[in-house]
Automatic annotation (TrEMBL):
Taxonomy, superkingdom: Eukaryota
Protein name from the UniProt record: Cell division control protein 12
Record-linked InterPro entries: G_SEPTIN_dom (IPR030379), P-loop_NTPase (IPR027417), Septin (IPR016491), Sigma_54_int_dom_ATP-bd_1 (IPR025662)
A GO CC annotation given for this chain: cell cortex
């Protein structure tokens, strides 16, 4: 039964109470960026939060990382404060992803990292004291697509399919200023077709049935996905005298916050301004619950999570060591056979010498016996 009161009793003030409670708490938000080296992941992170969160790229170190042939997971933590509200921000970078000729299982470290964060939170929930839970779960993943203008690569399709089952996936087209407006529109449509064909689940902001303006904003965000982005932390001057963040070219300036140039403002709105809580809630209610349900169905209480014993990062080194061991064994077997043949030849020679000595002894014994018989005959 629903009743409507004529005089206010204070129920409508409940959202304000919730706002005050949330303002006193510190929120946790974890953002993962995945993409090949050189697609502008670090620049975009610094552009999003208008601060130097991620350090600049050391190209010598990048070269050494490529020689290692391993996908790493780097974690950057910072605390942001705006209007007395604090957010514990965690950026998860993935250097080395997709940078090699053989990218087999390069997504495994990313999947393991996401599952490890779910496992850590699940372990904390099982403790008697849950008043100080540390939430390190990944709430959003920006997947950077190289601006080739063609379509998604097989590696992109495989990784996006696997990531979309565990995290809120948001595909972005890196360095959109390298494509013309027409080529960018065609490229976006090809990516959407591939996503639909392969059943890749990307994050969709909820559409509010009551607030039409909010619903229209959510539909505009979905129509722009995958977001075309331009990252820049430098201020440049346009031809009309404005100072904006962007990149300066001979033909003009590509502005970061100009919606006619890229979708940076829409991406920032989705991640920070309008749908950060939706990303956190969707992680809690959907991705984490799926992981929790799967783990509780497949293992007993208190048992550790079953992890792969085979580390794909060291497969090539393991195979090289196995080949080296096999070659060494073959070499030693060849040396053993030569030694065995030498021993057999030496044994045969010694046997022949023994037979010769034995024959000489027999002959000497016969001669001695003949001489003894001759001596007896003479005595008689």
């Amino acid at each position: 039964m629903t009743t409507t009161t004529t005089e206010p009793i204070g129920i409508s003030n409940l959202p304000n109470q919730r706002h005050r409670i949330a303002s006193r708490r510190t929120a946790n938000f974890t953002l993962m960026v995945v993409g090949e080296s050189g697609t502008g992941k670090t620049t975009l992170i610094n552009t999003l939060f208008r601060t130097e969160l991620a350090p600049g790229t050391n190209y010598a170190q990048r070269h050494m990382t490529q020689l290692d042939k391993a996908v790493e997971v780097d974690v950057i933590r910072a605390e942001l404060e705006e209007k007395q509200f604090r957010v514990n921000l965690t950026i998860v970078d993935t250097p080395g992803f997709g940078d090699y000729v053989n990218n087999r299982d390069c997504w495994v470290p990313l999947i393991d990292f996401i599952d490890d964060q779910h496992e850590s939170y699940l372990r904390q929930e099982q403790q008697p004291d849950r008043s100080h839970l540390i939430d390190t779960r990944v709430h959003a993943c920006l997947y950077f697509i190289a601006p080739t203008g063609h379509t998604l690569k097989p590696l992109d399709i495989e990784v996006m399919k696997r990531l979309s089952q565990r995290v809120n996936l948001i595909p972005v087209i890196a360095k959109a200023d390298t494509l013309t407006r027409r080529d960018l529109a065609v490229f976006k449509e090809r990516i959407r077709n591939v996503i639909r064909t392969h059943g890749i689940s990307v994050f969709a902001p909820p559409v509010d049935a009551i607030d039409e303006a909010s619903a229209e904003h959510a539909r505009a965000l979905m129509s722009s996905m995958p977001f075309s982005i331009i990252g820049s932390t430098q201020d440049v001057r346009t031809h009309d005298g404005r100072v904006v963040r962007g990149r300066e070219y001979l033909w003009g300036v590509a502005e970061v916050e100009n919606e006619h140039h890229c979708d940076f403002k829409k991406l920032r709105s989705l991640l920070i301004r309008t749908h950060m809580l939706d990303l956190i809630t969707n992680t809690e209610d959907f991705h984490y619950e799926n992981y929790r349900q799967t783990q509780m169905e497949t293992r007993k209480y208190g048992e550790p999570r079953v992890k792969r014993f085979e580390n794909p990062r060291f497969k090539e080194e393991e195979e090289a060591l196995r080949r080296k061991f096999t070659d060494q064994v073959k070499l030693e077997e060849g040396r053993f056979r030569q030694w065995e043949q030498h021993l057999i030849a030496e044994r045969d020679r010694l046997n022949k010498d023994l037979e010769t000595a034995h024959s000489a002894i027999k002959q000497l014994e016969s001669e001695i016996e003949s001489m003894q018989m001759a001596a007896r005959t003479q005595r008689r």
